[in-house]
């Protein structure tokens, strides 16, 4: 007959194994958050001698990004997009630009960490400041050959200002495919899905009459569309939150909405680069973006997700949190927008670390998907003594920082309406749980393996 | 009366304390070696899926660069030069651009790690592919207010193509100063000083008749001027090696000497950026630089230095090894040059790690002094589907890599003859001895403290 002591011992063992089972992963992705972006944000938010919360993370690594061309040869491509990088992280498969959860060349669906976690009984969540149908979130729970296939009306002959951008006919349900990204998310079984992209849930599902949003509700999602609805939503429901038609508004913007601007060389300087003079863009401050009012912060969305994913959960969860507009604002040459978005990532990270403090089996990882165009350049040229006009051939924002110095951010990867990504390896940060699980240098698909192994999937 | 066992025990203790005393530091600085440069070199030298020796280092950190303006206010400046960054590393003092071992505003001489090490009886060495009088090596053993004061003839009213670039009259011996960088190096007491910059040792010392080179010999240096002389030099002499008039030739160059070039837009495209077409620079390979023939490699110089610093040395040493032309070739928009130079750093690192394997109390650190202009950009724009001309407003090299893909490197920080530095934090790598001594995030002056504490100075 068991003694009280035996019972207590058995109870302890049971509790211990529950804790061990309830391993959680919070993966935070700063889209485009390379060391230039991190340093620009550090200087602005904390001062040059300050430190970000990111800087206090005990584990640090560098991640080599891998991309291949869309053939069976899979030749290296040295600069990625957010579709193939998120696919690397979510599935462990090196793929080609534009692909969501599918393989290069042969277009196979690659099983995602969310699908594996769900199958094992873990809860799953995806939170983003982009459309939930955007490349990064989509790659964790959908499979299409072209990231632009975000809703049922954008599957064939997608155009932008009459420019044909392709489609993904093979992914149509009529062709035996899984349908658009929004339709796949509606039936993804995710426990929490929060972000922007409401407009992609308005069209009717392929071959049906109800909207994608309605299909999501029929599949068990509670739908919330505002910050108030988010914060007041029933605590036990699976939650779909769509807080803007597309990308969520960002927190900071340039003074009066300004972005990076071109230097204005004098006529004489146009004749010879060492003659005449140049007028640089006026210095500017960053200011709150009025359009952000009423938008849930990334931290608020993360807090709601963590509460839902962890409540009465003995099995654990996987949560991906994306700070999307570090990248999106860099494409648009808006450094203040990127800085405010990195601040949002810092706040969400604080929530993640708080959660991990009371749930010690929580692995917290923060990384970027790829590098971006912005460069912190000298406010005064290092060749200023030569006393000739020296200026960027691209576009520059000269930002007055809170510590009263001038910080110049240069965008000069192309002359198109949007900057390019760049190819440098990106930082990876981990909490103490990551110690021994993450080498100082990894390839991006290794992230999938690290998370899968940690969750025992 | 002591037993044999007591004697053996005492002997062991003595040996142990000797080993502990003989702590060595090998600090390798890749000038301008940021994550863009590391990734570009990785892709070229090892392939996108390969890894550099750097990537195998067990300790990794990020280093925030600190620079201030040249006033007593010491306001933050967000982009550094190699003078103030080397001064941070060598002395722990945050200084202003252009300063060598001196403080911003009040122009104090800051004691360097080389001076501290020498005073404590350690041997010291400086090895570089730049002139030994260049900013990085100079900051470890000299003190002047202006990095351009490299020799006795360049102290007052320095000009370049008739452009006045200042000087450092206060540093003249006649003004009670220590004289030019070359003169200070000649009497620095360094055990090994190897690199380029012979032309700075030709002028007569201030107020004297003999050349700076002769002054160095009178102070105990054996002078070698070729690879053959270096490899055949007497094993016990203090060694000054000057293997080129200025910077040493680099190992790789672009095909036929090509560097990054401008895209050529059609006339129609000059009228509107979305019309017409553009001709991008022809792809090119990297090839051996004929001018490098006969130049000692960074590895050869490092091997000679390590042998001399460690032979019959019970007290230990400090050695700084600089791979200078990652930066210099980036200034000149020559990516093949930077790649070959990073390869030289890898070889020198291999020597350092070999040495540490047989001398376990050797701390090996590798870092960069500041970020640089080069960006790895898409060979095919990520917006290529839009089918309009898209190209960099700067200069681009399109390199055919050994694995047969095209890698585009963009230089677009200015329209001057030389690119700017950038402000991102830089990587730091350490061997196992660095474990627990280097946090995942540090400020650059912390490097001085880490080395000083490790050497017990």
Structure description:
- Chains A, B: This is Alkaline phosphatase.
- Chains A, B: It comes from Parahaliea mediterranea.
- Chains A, B: Its cofactor is Zn(2+); Mg(2+).
- Chains A, B: Zn(2+) binds at residues 31, 327, 331, 369-370.
- Two copies of one chain form a homodimer.
- Chain A has 13 helices and 22 strands.
- Chain A is α/β, with parallel strands linked by helices and 457 residues long.
- Chain A folds into two domains: 15-251 and 289-373 and 415-455, Alkaline Phosphatase, subunit A; 258-286 and 375-412, no CATH class.
- In chain A, the strands form six sheets. In chain A, strands 9-10-8-5-16-1-17-21-2-22 form a ten-stranded mixed β-sheet, with helices on both faces. A four-stranded antiparallel β-sheet of chain A has the order 12-19-20-18, with helices on one face. A two-stranded antiparallel ribbon of chain A has the order 3-4.
- The longest helix of chain A is centred in the last third of the chain and has 24 residues, at 335-358.
- Chain A is globular.
- Mean pLDDT of chain A is 95; it is low at 7-20.
> Which range best describes the helical content of chain A: under 10%, 10-25%, 25-40%, 40-55%, 55-70% or over 70%?
25-40%
Assembly status = homodimer
Percentage of β-strand residues of chain A: 15-25%
* Mean pLDDT rating of chain A: 95
**Poorly predicted parts of chain A:** 7-20
Kindly, what is the distance between the CA atoms of the first and last residues of chain A, rounded to a whole number of angstroms? 38 Å
Report the largest inter-chain contact: A-B, 81 and 81 residues
* CATH topology-level fold name of the largest domain in chain A: Alkaline Phosphatase, subunit A
**Structural class of the helices, strands and pairings of chain A?**
alpha/beta
Helical region count of chain A? 13
InterPro entries (chains A, B): Alkaline_phosphatase (IPR001952), Alkaline_phosphatase_core_sf (IPR017850)
Protein name (chains A, B): Alkaline phosphatase
Keywords (chains A, B): Magnesium, Metal-binding, Phosphoprotein, Signal, Zinc
GO molecular function (chains A, B): alkaline phosphatase activity; metal ion binding
């Amino acid at each position: 007959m068991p003694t009280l002591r035996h019972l207590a011992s058995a109870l302890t063992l049971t509790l211990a194994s529950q804790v061990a089972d309830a391993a959680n992963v919070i993966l935070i992705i700063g889209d485009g958050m390379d060391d230039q972006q991190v340093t620009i944000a550090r200087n602005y938010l904390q001062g040059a001698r300050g430190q970000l919360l990111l800087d206090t993370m005990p584990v640090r690594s560098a991640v080599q990004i891998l991309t291949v061309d869309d053939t069976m040869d899979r030749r290296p491509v040295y600069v990625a997009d957010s579709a193939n990088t998120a696919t690397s992280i979510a599935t462990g498969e090196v793929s080609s630009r534009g692909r969501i959860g599918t393989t290069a060349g042969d277009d196979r669906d690659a099983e995602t960490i969310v699908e594996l976690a769900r199958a094992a009984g873990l809860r799953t969540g995806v939170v983003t400041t982009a459309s939930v149908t955007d490349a990064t979130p989509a790659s964790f729970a959908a499979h299409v050959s072209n990231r632009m296939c975000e809703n049922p009306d954008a599957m064939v002959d997608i155009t932008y200002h009459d420019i044909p951008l392709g489609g993904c006919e093979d992914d149509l349900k009529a062709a035996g495919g899984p349908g658009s990204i929004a339709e796949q998310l509606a039936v993804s079984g995710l426990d929490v899905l929060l972000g922007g992209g409401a407009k992609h849930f308005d069209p009717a599902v392929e071959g049906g009459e109800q909207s994608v949003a309605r299909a999501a509700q029929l599949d068990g999602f509670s739908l919330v569309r505002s910050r108030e609805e988010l914060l007041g939503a029933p605590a036990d429901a699976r939650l779909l939150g769509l807080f803007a038609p597309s990308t969520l508004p960002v927190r900071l913007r340039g003074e009066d909405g300004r972005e990076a601007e071109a230097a204005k060389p004098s006529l004489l300087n146009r004749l010879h680069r060492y003659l005449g003079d140049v007028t640089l863009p006026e210095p500017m401050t960053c200011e709150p973006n009025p359009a952000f009012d009423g938008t849930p912060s990334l931290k608020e969305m993360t807090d709601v997700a963590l509460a839902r994913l962890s409540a009465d959960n003995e099995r654990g969860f996987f949560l991906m949190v994306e700070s999307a507009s570090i990248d999106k604002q860099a494409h648009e040459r808006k450094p203040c927008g990127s800085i405010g978005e990195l601040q949002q990532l810092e706040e969400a990270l604080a929530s993640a670390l708080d959660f991990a403090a009371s749930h010690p089996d929580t692995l917290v990882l923060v990384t970027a998907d790829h590098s971006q165009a912005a460069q912190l350049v000298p406010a005064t040229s290092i060749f200023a003594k030569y006393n000739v006009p020296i200026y960027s051939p691209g576009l520059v924002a000269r930002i007055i920082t809170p510590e009263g110095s001038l910080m110049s951010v240069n965008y000069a990867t192309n002359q198109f309406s949007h900057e390019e990504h760049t190819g440098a390896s990106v930082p990876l940060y981990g909490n103490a749980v990551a110690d021994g699980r993450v080498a100082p240098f990894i390839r991006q698909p290794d992230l999938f393996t690290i998370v899968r192994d940690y969750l025992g999937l």
